[in-house]
Design goal:
Number of domains: 2
Number of helices: 3
Number of strands: 0
Distance between the termini: 96 Å
Low-confidence stretches: none
Largest sheet: none
Strand content: under 5%
Shape: elongated
Oligomer: single chain
Helix content: over 70%
Mean pLDDT: 78
Order of helices and strands: HHH
Length: 159
């Protein structure tokens, strides 16, 4: 409740600031009217500009107040959740911890056996690749034993 009251105070303060700004702008316009010579159209244009600026200021203040209201609501929800966690009794805490431990153990066993299976697959692939490379190398050597003694002539002709 205390945070809600603070939010109301901020909103009232924002409205007061906006009202003060509007009165200040209107007072400035009215004082310029007395001291300044000029036509009505330029004074009306200046008043319109001042009112637009005041409207923009009010919009930005309202937006900021809405954002802060959302933040207060989120903080209130977080505080309620933490209060609920603090109210848990020891047996409830132990029950939650036991459930979590059981889940972790089940996941650990499952993870262990899937790791063993994956490692075995890679082991078999390594054996197969080694055998294929060895057979291919022996087949290549048996096929052309005198190829290694041949030399390829290189021509050094220049253009």
């Amino acid at each position: 409740m205390d945070e809600y009251r603070m939010l109301q105070i901020f909103q009232e303060l924002g409205v007061a600031l906006v009202a003060g700004a509007l009165l200040s702008v209107l007072g400035g316009v009215l004082s310029r009217k007395r001291t300044r010579k000029g036509d009505t159209a330029s004074r009306a244009e200046q008043l319109t500009r001042s009112l637009r600026e005041a409207t923009d200021l009010i919009d930005s203040i309202v937006t900021e107040i809405n954002e802060r209201t959302k933040l207060v609501d989120k903080l209130r929800q977080d505080a309620d959740q933490y209060d609920q966690l603090l109210k848990l009794k020891k047996p409830e805490v132990d029950a939650v911890a036991q459930v979590l431990r059981g889940e972790l153990q089940a996941h650990g066993r499952k993870s262990f056996w899937s790791g063993v299976g994956i490692n075995f697959v890679f082991f078999l692939l390594g054996v197969i690749v080694s055998v294929v490379i060895t057979v291919a190398s022996q087949h290549q050597t048996a096929r052309s034993p005198d190829q290694s003694s041949r030399t390829i002539p290189v021509s050094n002709s220049s253009r």
